[in-house]
Amino acid sequence: MDRLMDIPSSAELKRVVVVGGGFAGLNFCKRLKDERFQIVLLDKTNHHNFQPLLYQVATAGVEPSSISFPFRSLFAGRKNFHIRMCEVLETDAETQEVKTSIGRLHYDYLVIATGCDTNYFGNKALEENTMALKTTAEALYNRNHILESFERAVDTDDMQEREKLLTFVVVGGGATGVELAGALAEMRRFVLRKDYPDLDVDKMRIILVDGKDRLLYSFKPKSSREAEEYLRYRGVELKQKTRVLGYENEVLRLSNEEIPTANVFWTAGVIANSMGGFSSDMYGHGNRLIVDEFNRVGGYKNVFALGDTALMKQKDWPDGHPQVAQPAMQQADNCADNILAMENGEALKPFKYHDRGSMATIGRNHAVVETKGLVFGGFLGWLVWLVIHLMNIVGFKNRLLIFIDWVWSYFTHNSNLRIVVRPLIKGDRLYRLMKAQEQIREQKHKKTDNS
Amino acid sequence: MDRLMDIPSSAELKRVVVVGGGFAGLNFCKRLKDERFQIVLLDKTNHHNFQPLLYQVATAGVEPSSISFPFRSLFAGRKNFHIRMCEVLETDAETQEVKTSIGRLHYDYLVIATGCDTNYFGNKALEENTMALKTTAEALYNRNHILESFERAVDTDDMQEREKLLTFVVVGGGATGVELAGALAEMRRFVLRKDYPDLDVDKMRIILVDGKDRLLYSFKPKSSREAEEYLRYRGVELKQKTRVLGYENEVLRLSNEEIPTANVFWTAGVIANSMGGFSSDMYGHGNRLIVDEFNRVGGYKNVFALGDTALMKQKDWPDGHPQVAQPAMQQADNCADNILAMENGEALKPFKYHDRGSMATIGRNHAVVETKGLVFGGFLGWLVWLVIHLMNIVGFKNRLLIFIDWVWSYFTHNSNLRIVVRPLIKGDRLYRLMKAQEQIREQKHKKTDNS
Fold first, then answer.
1. Rounded to 10 degrees, what is the CA torsion of A386, A392, A398, A400?
2. Active-site residue among A97, A163, A179, A186?
3. ipTM of the complex
4. Position A300 pLDDT exceeds 90
5. Which of A101, A183, B106, B444 is most deeply packed, by most CB within 10 A?
């Protein structure tokens, strides 16, 4: 559509358009507080989503609302701050415009923080039949699916069918895969045993498939060993050095065997989200935008990419920084400072990554932590990490209450979360209602385009 | 499908099949605790849903999980108690069987407690274009729709379009309609003002349309007056003695005017959910199954209908009892006692309704209450009513904590609930995934039918 977005313009204000409200985008907006700037935050959803805990939503451990933070609340009261829910389609760096699903918008500075999506490496069958874990909607989908598998397993008297329904395969031995497998083992211990006395708990299989020779490959071997030992202790079957070839008709084909299963989670790779408007030579591996040490893209002075979607090759990081929250948040701070410096006519500061360590949860309150040369596991590290990360968000306003609410729901094993809510089922009124409304919107867009 | 459901049979146990886990079904299961019975609870979902507060989910006041109670947790530990998530299609009262989406099941006693659905009185356009409020899924749909209307209103520069998006029409002046209109007025006060500084709060219109000459027609005139005054005070426009003719292209046609609006909620009528197998003369008005004073259907000694779906004409209730929680819960208790009496060879007790009063919330913590000749409004009555109703559910197990959690979230105006989560949007991977899995299930059903 060719209309201009309805955002006030003013000669005094430099407009900074931020695409994406993940860790990078959110921290950037938080940092750049100067009255000379107007900030426009564009996102497909209306909320920040604390991705590291999405696996808890999928396994009915916490509510989506406990790890979701609506932008409008986070930035309530900020002057010259505008939020629009839309999809960004394309950038024109020459005319300094982005094209979105709700119109065009001119920028003085553009900050691209679009994050990552799941990577299926081109395998259509996997893309169409496995579950991913990148958005709140996906996490809720997975929760429904897991609970429905339990329900269907209770009912069937076909033992092969029951086996399929109770076999849960997680593909990918990185932090997300390890966390999800650990949480599924918790579900077997706490949920299946209590809620499904008709089912034999031992018949639930949890299998973690990974291509490498050790889990948590980006961690130190000691952490990998601890994760492997803990998961085995909880009854997770590890299939390492194993590739996935395909998944059809509820059979997962591995390089060395076949597993009948109705539940496959795909956490084996990520690919940066992109928008149109950049030539292919501006992209590096994983679809990441190549940036210089100031996070600038393609030689443009006013276009920046941050976090997961940026590829900055530095001395200690020849393949770019890890695609986790810490580099994203630090790049955001540095970028906000540099944009301010440009306005002040000061020198820019190159980005320097301060590696505060890594961490993965492998069970309820059980984690592996690596920081400042230390490698340890357990509850304390888990808590410290959690508080540091969450405080970056909740610190915005005095949102400690929400944190307490979350901790409460996490520790009380609130069984009310185990509800199946399928909003749109075949032939359902809601589905038809959604379709009707979609049609109305499309007609409006056409009308706007023609006018 | 022609298979038998996989539920253990035993000559010593009489099987009671309960269809529906609303107020009636749940209370029946709670009451009938005798080792001579096996209970099988069938429901389309896996949880009881506290319907009187669904309007709070729709207006982002509470989480679905706060008013949903999974059956498996509620009945954890009960012996000879089986739960199946399925749709009940048909009853054969001669062979004493129900047919469901997952197979057939024989019963000794059948308890039909299927509740109500929204009634559009045959108007297809209304059915396809307005929002209802009977299920958790619908409430979440409405929440997303309301928040998206706000977002779209912020963006548009077409003033007619903005007017449509900010006009909210509730059709139906009963308790649900009054409550929803009141809650929308709360959203204008608390949410719109805070989260959308770009929008002029006064531009949000809330209109309540009703065919009668006073709201809450089943209440006393004093209550109606109080509700009308309070809603007007909160800026709700009342259009009474007004009929709705149609809703097309975002224009609502009333008997005396037309209102351009993108948001129409339909709460103007209910119709009892039915299943196949009963002849048309067994149904009374509102599609309710005619029952005798023991809640028995069609002259059968072992088939009962309870609550909203039952029509029992008694001296003080020539049109049947009101379709609310109280009669449903009391009929459930009486029916459970009578089934036990039948096994003991004792006389059955006819149902007698103890009218404990009615109540409707018209604003946050503001209600009208009628009980034992008293008619009053305000906060205390609201709290008393709430505690009585919720305790019937939460009393099952020591679930007070969940109640506290709910009260917390209600009083803190948790803004995190204001998240838009659309699981299935056009062309989305999740939608295709759901379709693929539906197909697999259908193929399985066909296989089972043919075998």
1. -10
2. A179
3. 0.86
4. yes
5. A183
